Amino acid sequence: MEPSDSELVLKCLEAKEAFAELYRRHAPPVYAFLKGMHRGDEHAAADSLQETFLRAFNALRRFDRSRPLRPWLLTIAGNVARDVLARSKKVQYRAEVPDRPSGEQPIPETVATNEVCFTLLDRVAPRVSPRAVAAFLLARCQGLSYSEIATINECSQATVKRDLADAMAALSGAAAEMGLV
Amino acid sequence: MSCPEIGKVALPELDPETQAHVDSCTSCREKRARLDRLLTLPAEAVPPKEVLPKLLAQIDAQIAREAARPVRVPQTRRIAAAIFAMAVVGASVFAALSRSELNEREQRLQTIVLESEWRALGYSSEQQFLADVGGGK
Which of A73-77, A90-94, B40-44, B59-63 bottoms out in mean pLDDT, i.e. has the lowest? Predict the structure, then answer.
């Protein structure tokens, strides 16, 4: 039987080899979240993933094992991504999905939905805070509740709702500008 | 009735007025459904293979650095050690002073005893007494 997250954390404190198992178990959702935060930039997401788990390793002794591990890791990941984005102040537009000139056919459905979503996230990056983007990703992709997002983003539930509304309004606006809806 | 802005239609929780409109407007319902499909990302993604070995190597290097670093005594411990050392020195000085005071008292007592002896024997001075008992040179 697989050890629980709490047991796994305890093992990690005794031997660092167990940390690889913890990584294998939790890296996929954390990486998906980081890819969204970095608007599809896989290199930046991979670097942030490494930094997230290094910070987690260093803070493992302080982790309250009675609480779930994944939200804690997502909190660290969100902080790492925000730090990186603040340092790089990356606001350039991506070029994968071109704007649809008026009169042309709609962009075909074959364009990968993920790429469209990353492009939209990239478009709204100058107007929407990284915290709002995190709220959007945690709600829509990780399926977390307002209360869980509030814990991860270290804010109130009212702020989560406002952030989510801001992000959705900006993203749908960008989708409309690009002729996607 | 005109359609509300797309941003309003896209919100996860619609206000009653917008909800009523969306319920009755095929175009807005379709836009909302389309946005729902577009604004979706997978909950999990496979991270690049090289991240884990790099991470473990980074942890190893960090552990090695920490092992090589000289042990730093925390500030509070250093202060406590200094206070203890000062207390030990203070106690030694106090003990030494007490000892010398004791010696002085002993000497004074001896003098008083000697004086009472030669006076009791009828001598008028200590020198006479010492000369008679053989203590004088």
Answer: A90-94
Comparing alpha-carbon positions, the chain B residue that sits nearest to A160 is B12
Contact between B45 and A141 using a beta-carbon 8 Å cutoff: no
* ipTM score: 0.81
Tokens of A87: 């340092």
pTM: 0.72
* CA gap A57, A15 in Å, rounded: 11
Would you tell me how many other CB atoms lie within 10 Å of the CB of residue A10? 14
Domains of chain A: 1-90 (1.10.1740.10), 100-181 (1.10.10.10)
CB contact, 8 Å: A57 with chain B?
yes
DSSP B46-105: PPPTTHHHHHHHHHHHHHHHHHHSPPPPPHHHHHHHHHHHHHHHHHHHHHHHHHHHHHHH
Residue that has been written with the tokens 């660290």 in this structure: A76
Nearest-angstrom CA–CA distance, A114 and A62: 36
- How far is C-alpha A94 from the geometric centre of its chain's CA atoms? 18
